[in-house]
């Protein structure tokens, strides 16, 4: 994702439709990057996720030394852009070992030393996808206002980092990826960390996850939609929030829209920051925008 103020980062969108398949499974005790996250624990989790890695103690320690600096950078950014840094958002970013998500799935190559970079930017995951920069992810997370007890849905799993962040705060985190080889591989990474409240599947996020009883408190689309998919609003709970980047593929002029549903089921929206995402594909690219005003970004309150 690129926020036009001031950092730029690209978050990839899916490019091919695949059949739904639930991929994550319950694991063991959750890993906390601030407690017990050692070189041995890192290598064990990588091996269990099907991405074996050998890293030296010196390289592992160098990565850990950069984490506090990156967290301070996130805190400052959130204070500058949003007035404060939500303690729960900061806790989630502190607990999640970002180096675990730095992996190029097409090349089958880990790049943990790229984590916590001083100039946040996107990193390629292969198959046309990318791990978004951590400032943009922190911004969207806080704007979504996650809280304990929430059930969340992400459209565009990518690296699995965003859904993992939400899982550290919320009751349950669901995520859909349209790129089949990426979605199947990333679906294996949650259990080794003990993140048993994350479920992912391969499919077209345009239709959401209607099988989840009761719907979602938060829906985040992490690719550029040409309009807001109407099926997602049906799955948004009253009082829920939906964050949707809207704009034309590969062009500037995209904006993040924040939608809310009131107690009567009416959808309200506001235009947030300028962004730059690659496009949401699948049904979105084949289906004209519906007549419903909720799908149009022009409706603002």
Describe the protein.
- The chain is of the alpha/beta class.
- It has a domain of 175 residues: Rossmann fold (3-Layer(aba) Sandwich), CATH 3.40.50.150.
- It has 8 helices and 11 strands.
- A 7-stranded mixed sheet has the order 7-6-5-8-9-10-11.
- β6, α6 and β7 form a beta-alpha-beta unit.
- α2 packs across α4.
- The protein is globular, with a radius of gyration of 18 Å.
- It starts with 38 loop residues before the first helix and ends in a 15-residue tail after the last helix.
- Overall CATH architecture of the domain at 121-295: 3-Layer(aba) Sandwich
How far apart the termini lie comes to 25 Å
N-to-C SSE series? HHHEEEEHEHEHEEHEEEH
What is the fold named in CATH at topology level of the domain at 121-295?
Rossmann fold
Mean pLDDT: 88
Sheet with the most strands? 7 strands, mixed
Low-confidence regions: 4-22, 24-28
Please report the first level of CATH classification, the CATH class of the domain at 121-295. Answer: Alpha Beta
Q: Report the structural category.
A: alpha/beta
- The number of strands is 11
Distinct helical segment count: 8
Q: Hey, roughly how much beta strand do the residues contain?
A: 15-25%
Shape: globular
Widest β-sheet, arrangement of strands: 7-6-5-8-9-10-11
As a percent range, the share of helical residues equals: 25-40%
Q: Which value, in Å, is the CA radius of gyration?
A: 18 Å
């Amino acid at each position: 994702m690129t926020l036009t103020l001031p950092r730029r980062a690209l978050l990839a969108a899916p490019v091919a439709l695949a059949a739904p398949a639930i991929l994550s499974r319950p694991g063991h005790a959750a890993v906390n990057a601030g407690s017990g996250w050692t070189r041995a624990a890192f290598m064990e989790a990588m091996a269990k996720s099907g991405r074996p890695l050998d890293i030296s103690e010196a390289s592992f320690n160098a990565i850990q030394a950069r984490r506090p600096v990156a967290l301070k950078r996130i805190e400052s950014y959130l204070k500058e852009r949003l007035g404060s840094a939500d303690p729960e958002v900061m806790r989630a970013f502190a607990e999640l070992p970002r180096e675990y998500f730095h992996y190029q799935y097409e090349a089958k190559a880990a790049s943990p030393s790229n984590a916590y970079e001083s100039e946040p930017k996107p990193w390629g995951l292969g198959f046309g996808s990318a791990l978004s920069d951590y400032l943009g992810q922190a911004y969207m997370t806080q704007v979504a206002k996650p809280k304990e007890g929430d059930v969340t849905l992400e459209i565009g799993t990518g690296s699995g980092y965003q859904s993992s962040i939400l899982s550290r705060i919320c009751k349950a985190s669901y995520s859909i990826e349209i790129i089949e080889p990426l979605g199947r591989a990333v679906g294996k990474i949650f259990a080794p960390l003990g993140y048993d409240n994350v479920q992912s599947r391969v499919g077209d996020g345009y239709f959401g996850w209607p099988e989840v009883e009761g719907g979602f408190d938060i829906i985040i689309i992490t690719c550029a939609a040409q309009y807001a998919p109407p099926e997602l609003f049906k799955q948004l709970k009253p009082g829920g929030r939906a964050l949707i980047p809207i704009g034309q593929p590969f062009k500037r002029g995209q904006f993040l829209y924040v939608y809310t549903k009131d107690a009567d089921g009416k959808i309200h929206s506001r235009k947030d920051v300028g962004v730059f995402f690659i496009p949401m594909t699948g049904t979105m690219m084949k289906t004209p925008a519906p007549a419903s005003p909720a799908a149009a970004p022009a409706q603002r309150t």
